[in-house]
Amino acid sequence: MPLQLYNTLTKKKEIFRSIKPRRVGLYTCGPTVYHYAHIGNMRTYIFEDILRRTLEYLGYRVKQVMNITDVGHLTDDNDSGEDKLERGARREAKSVFSVAKFYTKAFVRDLEALNIKKPSVLSPATKHIKGQIKMIERLVKKGYAYDTAGAVYFAVLKFKDYTKLSGKKLEDQQTGAREGVAVDSSKRNPEDFALWFKIVGRFKNHILHWPSPWGDGFPGWHIECSAISTHYLGQPFDIHTGGVDHIGTHHTNEIAQSEAAFDRPLARYWLHGEFLNLSNQKMAKSAGDMVTIETLRNRGFDPLAYRYFVSLAHYRSILDFSWEGLKSAQNAYRKLLSHTARLKAQSKNKKLNTLRDASIARELKNKFIAALENDLNTPIAISIIWFVISSQRLNPKSKYRLLIDFDRVLGLQLKSAKIPNPPHMVRLLSNKREKARQIKNWKQADALRRQMSGLNWEVDDTPDGPVLIPKRQEMSQ
Ligand code: AMP
Ligand code: ZN
């Protein structure tokens, strides 16, 4: 089966065909670096990483480009409010530059903690001011943009099919006028959006600004992604991604700008990751109870257990976050590590690969590929991992190889799995339990399991023998 991806633009699952053979240009909208990323943001980056790894697993060479928003993203997506970076700088009494630098570094650390591959290009918006100005000039020349006292705006009515990505009517689009929000009266249409803000009026003290044909100012948020994606990937490129909140405004505006400027589609496939919710609400940076990777660590969680938790849901379903849910995901993840480590130990110096094994392994690998090819179905992919572990038909070496192979996509660092050595007493109890099981003395076997549990060790019976797994007591709720 070929790879199929759900395309927000056409609102259906489509067979993926790359523009250039075996190569993919992928653009993923990056973070606004005025604060730590929360685990909701990181869910979106994990989904994008799974997409990239799946493409690579299937034999594509992927060029992934991500922007870093360090200017122009206002606290409200509809051109009102203030620049998030300037707000961050005020909050921390630091310069805008040091805030951007600090949170960019923190973001890269979060990527590493979650084993997310670093994009081929990670570029701040402020490094592409010239490109953005050039694009705006083009839009002004072609009659898509107009200059006012405070800003240069994109005239949405000039662009045919402006709402094609969201499939909404223009009046339902969140872009411009939202009830109760003051709209610049010099906009021709309330939905028009800013390409360039001038440092006048409410922005007269804006710290970041550059000269432009329309006077000193700074770019709007959307134009950076249009300029950066086209610069590195050309136009059109293959896949553009982000969270679902980008569909209505940010990506709609990116499409309008880029397609109006170059009369070509911006990207062929648009993929959007659903939200991570906390108490039925979208997790947001402005909310007080925002959870970061650091919060997870402080609560005794391994960031990779969060990656496992995220992979248990399909990227297009809302995922409700709870500490209980994460805890059971962490338990399962630890079991997975223990099983992998045990299989590794069992497969050393053994020549176990038979022809029969190879064909069963191939069959399971095909199932795994089919799950991913079906719009990145990671929950099924994870269930195949467990199926491999419990298989009666495969030897440990084949199992281990399969797990390591699958982990190229799942990114759970199974290769580094190590079982801590159980204490002497636990090993003794486990051996005794095995003997009891051999003579079918289930009562004694259960009693021994309880004794081991009292010492904080669990035992998992597998076709390849018992796996001893340490219980973690220190995790908080
Ligand atoms: P931002 O740093 O706010 O620009 O967001 C970075 C990425 O995280 C974007 O792709 C957003 O769509 C995504 N995002 C924001 N909030 C959530 C959430 N609660 N769950 C999943 N993704 C989110
Ligand atoms: Zn973007």
From TrEMBL:
It catalyses: tRNA(Cys) + L-cysteine + ATP = L-cysteinyl-tRNA(Cys) + AMP + diphosphate. Pfam families: tRNA-synt_1e (PF01406). One of its GO terms (cellular component) is cytosol. Zn(2+) binds at residues 29, 225, 250, 254. It is an enzyme of class 6 (ligase). Keywords: Aminoacyl-tRNA synthetase, ATP-binding, Cytoplasm, Ligase, Metal-binding, Nucleotide-binding, Protein biosynthesis, Zinc. One of its GO terms (biological process) is cysteinyl-tRNA aminoacylation. CDD domains: CysRS_core (cd00672). Residues 16-330 form the tRNA synthetases class I catalytic domain. InterPro entries: Cys-tRNA-ligase, Cys-tRNA/MSH_ligase, Rossmann-like_a/b/a_fold, tRNA-synt_1_cat_dom, tRNAsynth_Ia_anticodon-bd. ATP binds at residue 285. A motif ('HIGH' region) lies at residues 31-41. It comes from the Bacteria. Its cofactor is Zn(2+). One of its GO terms (molecular function) is cysteine-tRNA ligase activity. Its main location: cytoplasm. It is found in: Cytoplasm. A motif ('KMSKS' region) lies at residues 282-286. Monomer. This is Cysteine--tRNA ligase. It comes from Candidatus Sungiibacteriota bacterium.
